[in-house]
Amino acid sequence: MTRKMWGLIPVLDCSQLLRLCPSQCKPYVCPITTPDPRVDSSQRTMSDQAFVTLATNDSYAKGAMVLGQSLRNHNTTRKLVVLIGPHVAEPCRDALRSVFDEVRVVDVMDSGDTAHLALMKRPDLGVTFTKLHCWTLTHYSKCVFMDADTLVLSNIDELFEREELSAAPDPGWPDCFNSGVFVFRPSNETHEKLLTFCGEHGSFDGGDQGVLNSFFNTWATADISKHLPFVYNLSSIAIYSYLPAFKQYGHDAKVVHFLGKVKPWNYSYDAQQGEVRGHSQSPDQSQLHPDYLLMWWQLYAKSVLPLLQKSYGEAPFSSGFVEASGDGKLHEDVSEHPAPSHPPPQKVSSEERKQRWEAGQIDYLGDDSFANIERKLDSFLK
């Protein structure tokens, strides 16, 4: 009987059931709006957040432009800001304006009484004081500072989910953070406290990293969420000192940091051959990974050099390129501002090499290369 009853009940779809319902019983249908995929939460806050860098001279301005262009190439939704020193040439400033949303000239001596008085106590920290100006960008709610000798390899907008002061460990002393990349909240109050602290305590390493680590002294122990993964601040020094880890995790690198005295712009580039020149002339060659160095120059050649050529016009400037002349030799395409040359490395004694090794000054691509070490070990084991 039950089976026969079910056979008499018609099967209705939803639209048929709604037609059978009284009007007062019909559900209110709320139209579903599909959000524009181009407008997400990060983009809605883009004008309120910014990546910030610093260029104190024309050379660092080139680095800043490569950094800014790498952020643009990886589709950042945040503003780009560069703080520049008064010595940056006007053509360089014009080129910077083509990459950055905001170009702000900063000069410690004109920044107010607090900075002026602090600098009088510690004039050796002039560049550090200039970097601390980033805390005065109070028209932004949150920023990520990046040194001009960094290069972005993928989109890193997720850094804005972190809080002040978030940074990656320094390869030389992991209980310290490296100040080449850090998340912060602009604040005039924090800025004044930093300047006062700087003037009273100085810096244990003579630069901004020592000051910031002393000021934000709970970074190592208080909150693990403020420890950025090392891939957000990967240094070539660390690549060579722990090569197995680089082989395991290096493909996830998001930011490369060209630590050391010799920067990418101190080299030369042969556009015809697509090669970076000057490796053998630099005693610090081991600190710059050749693949990342080439990547830096390729981006410079494609996106930055045209901006500089447009800004300088007929005026000469150092392009960093080398060209083949009639005699078949390569000559640097420079002007009245040639890049610094480096004398060829001199042969050092075994004792000096030992001292350099213990001080962390290892020539991984020269005398201290893996192949040379392997040959030395083989000679002892035979």
Short structural summary:
This protein is 36% helix and 15% strand. It has 14 helices and 13 strands. The longest helix has 23 residues, at 290-312.
- H/E series: HHHEHEHEHHEEEEHHEHHEEEHEEHH
CATH homologous superfamily name of the domain at 48-252? Answer: Spore Coat Polysaccharide Biosynthesis Protein SpsA, Chain A
Overall geometry: globular
- For the biggest β-sheet, the strand order reads 3-2-1-4-7-6
State the helix count.
Answer: 14
Mean pLDDT figure: 80
- What is the name of the CATH architecture of the domain at 48-252? Alpha-Beta Complex
* C-alpha termini separation: 97 Å
Largest sheet entry:
6 strands, mixed
- The CATH topology name of the domain at 48-252 reads Spore Coat Polysaccharide Biosynthesis Protein SpsA, Chain A
**Name of the CATH first level of the domain at 48-252:** Alpha Beta
Q: Regions with pLDDT < 50 over 5+ consecutive residues?
A: 1-45, 280-286, 325-330, 334-345
Pathway: Glycan biosynthesis; glycogen biosynthesis
GO cellular component, one term: cytoplasm
Protein name: glycogenin glucosyltransferase
Main location: cytoplasm
If you had to describe this structure to a student in words, what would you say it looks like?
With 382 residues, the chain is α/β, with parallel strands linked by helices. Among the domains are: 48-252, Spore Coat Polysaccharide Biosynthesis Protein SpsA, Chain A, CATH 3.90.550.10; 352-381, no CATH class. Helix content is 36%, strand content 15%. The protein contains 14 helices and 13 strands. The chain has helices at 2-8, 14-20, 41-44, 58-73, 90-99, 113-121, 126-131, 188-201, 208-215, 236-241, 243-249, 290-312, 350-358, 370-381, and strands spanning 49-55, 79-84, 102-105, 142-146, 150-152, 166-169, 177-184, 234-235, 255-257, 268-270, 275-277, 321-324, 330-333. A six-stranded mixed sheet has the order 3-2-1-4-7-6, sandwiched between helices. A three-stranded mixed sheet has the order 5-9-8. Strands 10-11 form a two-stranded antiparallel sheet. A hairpin with a 7-residue loop joins strand 6 and strand 7 (177-184). Helix 4 (58-73) packs across helix 12. Residues 327-336 have a biased composition (Basic and acidic residues). InterPro entries: Glyco_trans_8, GNT1/Glycosyltrans_8, Nucleotide-diphossugar_trans. One of its GO terms (molecular function) is glycogenin glucosyltransferase activity. It catalyses: L-tyrosyl-[glycogenin] + UDP-alpha-D-glucose = alpha-D-glucosyl-L-tyrosyl-[glycogenin] + UDP + H(+); [1,4-alpha-D-glucosyl](n)-L-tyrosyl-[glycogenin] + UDP-alpha-D-glucose = [1,4-alpha-D-glucosyl](n+1)-L-tyrosyl-[glycogenin] + UDP + H(+). Its cofactor is Mn(2+).
